[in-house]
Amino acid sequence: MKKEMSSQALSEEIEHFLMEHKDAALGTCMNQKPRVSPVQYFLGADLELFILSAGGDKFKAIKENPNVCLLVNTEFITHRKIKGVQIFGTATTSIENYDLFDEAMQFYPDPNMMNFNREDLKVIKIIPEEIVYLNAIEDGDRTKQILSDNQVSLKEDNLMLH
């Protein structure tokens, strides 16, 4: 079992991991059916995330149900060795809040994007409520560190390490 990190140390570890990656899977639910969309994201303030997209059903799904899950992970080394973050939160879009585009552009890493036609691009903002962090790359220990309300808890994996 891994030692529980402080909330600050865990937040920093999550932020560092998220900054190393840009591809993710966005889980939404529409008409009582779960769906997953491949997306690219970037970080805002306080571990908030932004996704730029041309559109799609994910926007309809968020309007119907703003509860989302974003998964960012490494590739599996073995069935036990992987590193990743699941972010459970509430999403809003620039369809409902046009100001999100300006907010997102404050954090977007490519300044040339500022000239992009806003009519062709939409924004999703995810405000995290719970973040699950797993780093089982080195030893296969799949104990998860969960950050919620600035508090950390552990969830041990009860599977045997054979």
TrEMBL record:
SUPFAM superfamilies (UniProt xref): FMN-binding split barrel
Top-level taxon in the UniProt lineage: Bacteria
Pfam families listed in its UniProt record: PNPOx_N
UniProt domain Pyridoxamine 5'-phosphate oxidase N-terminal: residue ranges: 10-131
InterPro entries: Pyridox_Oxase_N (IPR011576), Split_barrel_FMN-bd (IPR012349)
Protein name: Putative pyridoxamine 5'-phosphate oxidase family protein
